[in-house]
Amino acid sequence: VQLVESGGGLVQPGGSLRLSCTASGLPFNLYHMSWYHQAAGKERELVAEISGTEDTYYVDSVKGRFTISRENAANTVYLQMNRLKPDESGVYYCAARYDSTYWGQGTQVTVAS
Q1: Are 91 and 107 within 8 A, CB to CB?
Q2: DSSP code per residue over the chain
Q3: Tell me, what's the pLDDT at 5?
């Protein structure tokens, strides 16, 4: 099983990024997919998740700004992040959960002017 995140980078406050996570080696459509954020020196925290039936959940701080979606045909989950804030800098990880939980290696997001 492999999860590969991409799409991170440097963006100004108020800007947007779209993260992608492509999975291989698992029946993707069965898996509950999540995005987590880990700021420097802090614990990893859930940002958003999407079920196999595309039910979604967001933490309050990102509601209305972030959108999680999935494309099962491409084994990919996305996180569209709008109106980014400096404290949302850090590493973003995707996770796949069903009978086991798998993690990607993370992608760095830096929100700074």
Answers
A1: yes
A2: -EEEEE--EEE-TT--EEEEEEEESS-GGGSEEEEEEE-TTS--EEEEEE-TT--EEE-GGGTTTEEEEEEGGGTEEEEEE-S--GGG-EEEEEEEESSSEEE---EEEEE--
A3: 98
Q: pLDDT (tens digit, 9 = 90+) per residue, 2-35?
A: 999 999 999 999 999 999 999 999 999 999 999 9
Task: Tell me the one-letter amino acid at 53.
Answer: T
Q: Which amino acid is at 103?
A: W
Torsion of CA 66, 68, 71, 72, to 10 degrees: 170
